[in-house]
Amino acid sequence: MIRTKEIIRDAFWELLEEKPYNKITVQDIVNRCQVNRNTFYYHFQNIPALMEESVKEWMEDVIHRYGNLESPAYCLTYIAGECMKRKNAFLHLFRSAQKDVFLFSLNKMACGVVKAYVDEEEEYKGSSSEEKERVIRCYKCLFVGIILDWLEENASFDLPEFCEEICRTLAESAPHMMGRYPNE
């Protein structure tokens, strides 16, 4: 039973790589995975429910598989690499009526990966929960902003490479930015 759900989700991702979200039908999905319509409807109410669960499962898998990350910047680069693997699917979701669900999941995933890093990293062990939350939110906002830019540019640039460049630039300029406040 669980395997059938996975097969249906896999078929959905394959189709989403090939064509826009609004062009995918239940018939396309059942033909791809060779199950009947009743089987589809046993597991999913409709295609939007399938999409929501598929994105959620993908996100949880990314968070689960990320392993030990060296820095928040590496968290972002890692997520970027995972997004590149589903580039066309994400472009189709971004251009669809389900864009909000996709962006909500992306926010949640970015936050989850950075939070997992911050919770384990020695550097943040003595930090207050408010300080940790600021770091998590900062990197989450940075990443989601980069992803939105990437999607708005039709995924036309190498996302992991761009994330590495942005993080390198931030690391180099951070000492100069810190402590420089107006009226000092």
TrEMBL record:
It comes from the Bacteria. Residues 2-62 form the HTH tetR-type domain. InterPro entries: Homeodomain-like_sf, HTH-type_Tx_Regulator, HTH_TetR, TetR_C_Firmicutes. Gene3D superfamilies: Tetracycline Repressor, domain 2 (1.10.357.10). The keyword Glycoprotein does not apply. Keywords: DNA-binding. PROSITE patterns: HTH_TETR_2. It holds the Pfam family TetR_N. Residues 25-44 bind DNA. GO terms for molecular function: DNA binding. This is TetR family transcriptional regulator.
